[in-house]
């Protein structure tokens, strides 16, 4: 089941980057330039950020399986539309719709793992699941590079159509069963149609997701995830524009080979990253005499987010800027930070599930909402920034962002439990006050009658 969820989650991220290697070809066909096509890719990332606040609550109400089925069919249909797009406007619309549907696989898959795995096993399962979401962005440009070297860029989206059609078939088989133990829509039996609409809107209102950010620890976890995803897309987006002139590469396939370095790193990280996070949790449970504190999980991400990835980013950026180290330096740094990212994401995602039991899809939706907004910003600004200040200084900004996020994660380890308890007390007090006011109003109406 985890393997199938990982395959489904592979689709939207691979689509986000597969067109990168074909950017000049797409721009030429639609009589525009690469900057405009990259803006389309940035809006794709924006929609990947916005859609979780819709699909997250929906999966709590109607079930994980139903949301997966609907979005898989729509994703396949929009992929066909992208492949056939006759002009830039149609290409833009279908790309955006594809992004809106595709993110559901990622957040619903994470929620499914939260439904069926114990806390001490979740990070390992999430590590395998997230391999699809991370290998996708790295493998996409390589696949796209091969395709545009030998045939039309539209074949990229026909391949995407075939893969998404296969995923859609999987969602209708027993291989992907329902994992949520209780669908909220089942509570509405006996309600009038008007009452159902009112309650349903309250259940699926996207604001439900955003309200979770009253918890400072969730803000910190989202910031940390965003720093790592910013780093990923700010590296992957400009490879063809940055490395082709630096190393005198002449074809999309040659630059596409560079994407295999982080992709291989993600695959290697899958084998150890999640397991290491669970190992750290178990070690701290023993230290605390059997007591599990969710914040202990974050300790596994600190050295990788605060030291390994920033160091790789700086070495990569300034190596390219100063023309030092050649191809081996670029490949090694891309690979090492690919491994390091798989020590960060399982820990951060699992922490969100641990602290919000029963609202797994919503808390993951909130995390992905913030995460992909930063991915959108990275995709949109990286090329203009590199042209304005150079690869070295842009990499320095990225490294500082990662270090600040690591500091926020460390603060969560120290004070996160207190933050959670304080917000829980405030919410209980507020709920009690609202109930008291409601009872008084009912009493006044009864006396008036």
Automatic annotation (TrEMBL):
The chain crosses the membrane at residues 37-55, 67-86, 92-113, 125-150, 156-176, 212-236, 256-277, 298-320, 326-348, 369-386, 392-415. Residues 1-449 form the Major facilitator superfamily (MFS) profile domain. GO terms for cellular component: plasma membrane. Residues 1-16 form the signal peptide. PROSITE patterns: MFS. One of its GO terms (molecular function) is transmembrane transporter activity. It holds the Pfam family MFS_1. Keywords: Membrane, Signal, Transmembrane, Transmembrane helix. Gene3D superfamilies: MFS general substrate transporter like domains. It comes from the Eukaryota. SUPFAM superfamilies: MFS general substrate transporter. It is found in: Membrane. It is a multi-pass membrane protein. This is Major facilitator superfamily domain-containing protein.
């Amino acid at each position: 089941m985890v393997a199938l969820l990982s395959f489904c989650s592979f689709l939207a991220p691979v689509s986000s980057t597969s067109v990168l290697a074909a950017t000049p070809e797409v721009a030429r066909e639609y009589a525009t330039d690469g900057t405009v096509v990259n803006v389309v890719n940035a809006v794709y990332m924006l929609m990947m950020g916005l859609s979780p606040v819709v699909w997250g609550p929906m999966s709590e109400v109607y079930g994980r399986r139903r949301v997966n089925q609907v979005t898989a069919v729509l994703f396949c249909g929009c992929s066909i539309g992208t492949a056939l797009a006759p002009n830039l406007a149609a290409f833009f619309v279908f790309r955006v719709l594809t992004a809106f549907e595709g993110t559901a696989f990622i957040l619903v898959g994470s929620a499914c793992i939260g439904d069926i795995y114990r806390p001490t096993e979740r990070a390992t399962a999430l590590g395998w699941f997230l391999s699809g979401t991370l290998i996708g962005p790295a493998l996409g440009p390589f696949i796209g590079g091969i395709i545009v070297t030998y045939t039309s860029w539209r074949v990229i989206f026909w391949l995407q159509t075939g893969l998404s059609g296969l995923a859609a078939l999987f969602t209708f088989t027993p291989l992907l069963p329902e994992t949520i133990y209780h669908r909220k829509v089942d509570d509405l039996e006996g309600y009038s149609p008007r009452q159902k609409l009112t309650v349903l809107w309250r259940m699926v209102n996207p604001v439900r997701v955003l309200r979770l950010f009253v918890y400072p620890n969730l803000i910190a976890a989202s910031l940390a995830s965003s720093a790592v995803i910013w780093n990923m897309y700010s590296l992957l987006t400009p490879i063809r524009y940055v490395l082709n002139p630096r190393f005198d590469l002449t074809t999309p396939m040659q630059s596409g080979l560079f994407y295999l370095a982080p992709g291989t790193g993600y695959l290697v990280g899958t084998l150890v990253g999640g397991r290491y996070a669970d190992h750290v949790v178990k070690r701290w449970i023993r230290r605390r005499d059997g007591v599990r504190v969710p914040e202990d999980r974050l300790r596994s991400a600190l050295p990788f987010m605060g030291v390994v990835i920033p160091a790789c980013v700086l070495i990569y950026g300034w190596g390219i800027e100063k023309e030092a180290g050649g191809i081996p330096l670029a490949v090694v740094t891309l690979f090492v930070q690919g491994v390091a990212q798989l020590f960060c994401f399982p820990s951060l995602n699992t922490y969100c599930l641990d602290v919000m039991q029963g609202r797994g899809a919503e808390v993951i939706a909130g995390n992905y909402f913030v995460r992909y907004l930063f991915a959108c910003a990275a995709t949109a600004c990286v090329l203009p920034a590199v042209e304005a200040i150079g690869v070295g200084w842009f990499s320095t900004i990225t490294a500082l962002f990662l270090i600040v996020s690591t500091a926020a994660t460390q603060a969560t380890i120290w004070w996160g439990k207190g933050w959670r308890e304080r917000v829980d007390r405030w919410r209980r007090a507020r709920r009690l006050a609202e109930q008291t006011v409601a009872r008084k109003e009912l009493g006044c109406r009864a006396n008036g009658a």
